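Progress report, Aim 2. The chain analyzed during this reporting quarter is listed below.
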Amino acid sequence: HFVVQRDSGNVGIGTSSPSGGKLHVSGGDVKITDTFPALILDGTTGGNEWAFLEVASGNLEIRVNDSQKVAIDSSGNVGIGTSSPSKKLHLSAADVSMYLDNTNANGQAWEFKSTNGASSSTGTLQLKDEDGHFWMAFNENAGSNFIQFLTNNAEAMRIDDGNVGIGVVPSAWN
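Predicted structure tokens for the chain:
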């Protein structure tokens, strides 16, 4: 079915009664084929043009007013503020920050989990500078939980099972 309604100008594909918009597709997908296909939403009241497009790198990008905001690469990495995401979530800006807002009064504020494909969790949350120097690391490895504070990638302090060590080898703790 392909219908153009004379009174509204609505176009229907797969339906004889197009409704809800100028183009109504029913019973199938919409495929756009081009060198760099794009879906552009240009609102007349909001003043912004939103574009979902494939770019030369093969990434899918979301742009606002022709400025790239989000990129998704072929491996599924998502970049916000970068067109070349190097991790599953890559944030990049002159003043980058993350805001996590848990509105459930009984919930956890943050939960980062790495299961390593096993039933016991293991992982590290690390804070580093741009040169890769550690500032702080929260480690969990098969029940051995500790917090490390580092300077120049060397451990300066560790909190482990209630013990605090400053400048001492953990095995020397009593």
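The chain has a mean pLDDT of 79. The CA atoms of residues 46 and 151 lie 49 Å apart. These observations will guide the mutagenesis work planned for the next reporting period.
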